[in-house]
Write a structure and sequence with these properties.
Elements lengths: L9 H11 L17 H8 L8 H12 L2 H6 L5 E3 L5 E4 L2 H37 L5 H6 L24 E6 L2 E11 L2 E6 L4 E5 L3 E2 L1
Antiparallel strand pairs: 1-2, 3-4, 3-7, 4-5, 5-6
Helix pairs in contact: 1-3
């Protein structure tokens, strides 16, 4: 019974050839030059195989023999092989020369394509580099910002009363708050931070 799963994708057909003729079609690494007229042998060998058509085989074979790794393998001293990997003749110089010219043209075409795309990417980069020029502006901003200097005097117990706004000496910077209770020399202050502390009157500034 014939298979109805016909292969149409060139890569799938190449994979099928790698599997079916592993001594002829090499999937990875250096390849070997193929026998002249190999397509006819291939068509006859796969005549009863409904998976591939002659047209698709021809396309796949052209893809394989135009690849860079195949063209690199067409060199002096290399032997052509048949479907079973048997050697069947040394390469002629004209075929070696043709392969080298084809490889060089293909590589130059690929290089030109990469270079043509490069200016598009390069044109976008200067716009991004322009941003750092704003950095010097930041240096000018801190200077004008100067908080008004408020001179605070130590508070006297008789001047204090509940709910009065005061400043409490805590470290280098006085902390604002509100008097909530006065008990002799001790004053209870609720700071703006939410913390309530008991301090001596000499630590309170007005």
């Amino acid at each position: 019974m014939e298979s109805t799963d016909k292969l149409t994708d060139t890569n799938a057909i190449l994979a099928y050839l790698y599997e079916t003729f592993p001594l002829c079609f090499i999937a990875e690494g250096e390849t070997k030059p193929l026998k002249i007229g190999l397509f006819q042998d291939l068509a006859e060998r796969l005549a009863d195989d409904s998976k591939v058509s002659k047209t698709q085989l021809r396309v796949a074979l052209r893809r394989y023999t135009s690849s860079w790794r195949y063209l690199k393998g067409v060199k002096a001293g290399a032997q052509r092989i048949d479907l079973d990997g048997n050697e069947c003749g040394e390469l002629e110089q004209e075929h070696i020369d043709h392969a080298q010219v084809t490889l060089k043209e293909s590589q130059e075409k690929a290089k030109a394509k990469r270079q043509a795309q490069a200016p598009k990417n390069a044109a976008k980069k200067p716009a991004k580099k322009a941003a750092p020029k704003r950095a010097p502006v930041k240096k000018e901003r801190p200077a004008p910002v100067a908080a008004p200097v408020v001179k605070l005097e130590p508070a006297k117990l008789e001047e204090l009363k509940q709910k009065q706004r005061v400043n409490v000496k805590l470290g280098a910077t006085p902390v604002p708050g509100v008097v909530t209770d006065i008990n002799k020399e001790d004053v209870l202050v609720q700071l703006d931070t939410g913390l309530t502390i008991k301090v001596r009157v000499e630590h309170i500034l007005l």
